[in-house]
């Protein structure tokens, strides 16, 4: 059964009952593949509420397409490179012949089905998207008002639309996101896969790169105040701030002279280094914090301090290169409980980058790690290696990069061990 024709382009002001369409003749006249392009152009105009008047053109038509247009109009449509057909003429043919008394719009609807208005489609889609955001509204209304700005941001910047693509997928995704954020931060800390399995029935639902992990981690940063960043260690630390441990045993930090737990007290009394895991630090962090904690980059410094000073060594933490989630969790805890952190690293571009990465995440003061200290170390190290790599900045001492560039040599921590040990031995 044909649907009522849209005759708005003809100026009708009242909807009239649809006149019958001769389907067999219409199919023979307009339904072949050689006029599919013409039907498609008409449907586009109908969808946009544009009048079905004037010409439509097809570039580089085939001979069969030209012949079909000629049969339709009862004359040759022209011999140019493009094929042009006036919609007014097609409408007139359909009406005069009785094939479609209500004209072209009714004929196309009969051939291809109802043509949805783009304005209606867009309105339905917008309604669907508004409904998709309902889980965020419910989350904020029922216990997480602090996430209101975050929710507005991920909607307004298009993040949800980009990763979900459809309103239906978005509603499911945001429902799961809300379910996770209601349970965070986790107390006590728990394995990320275990939390994921308990919450969603899938231990891998919050694996890196999934849309759900992207949104939940974004919300976690708002809940915890965790700074922006990127990379595997950053994600590990961000999850840890919400009590979710990702590879909680593989992320470690070296310490010496640190107290605050039975194991740490024993290690310090014995003068032995201790290895703390992220799991230990999130579940049972040190109960005490020394007024000053020194931080170094390389394990050789901590090992030599253990050999030389033993139980007399004051608190020392070693990053072992780039700061791990365990190292950052420990240093944040110590800083929050009153410790002043004093940092030393290699005098080279890589060392400055590690120091800067640490400074962005936890405050520290330089420990023999300024331009003046670098110049003194160069003067005392005649066989220093040439400086290589790409220059960077040093927020704690803006003159340090210029000093490195000017003198052009690198000084590793091992080259100034005597000075560092002297400080630790005081």
Automatic annotation (TrEMBL):
Domain DUF2399: 275-424
Pfam families per UniProt: DUF2399, DUF3323
Region of interest (Disordered), ranges: 1-25
Taxonomic superkingdom: Bacteria
Segments of skewed composition (Basic and acidic residues): 11-25
Chain ranges of the Conserved hypothetical protein CHP02679 N terminus domain: 52-259
Protein name stated in the entry: TIGR02679 family protein
High-level lineage: Bacteria, Bacillati, Actinomycetota, Actinomycetes, Kitasatosporales
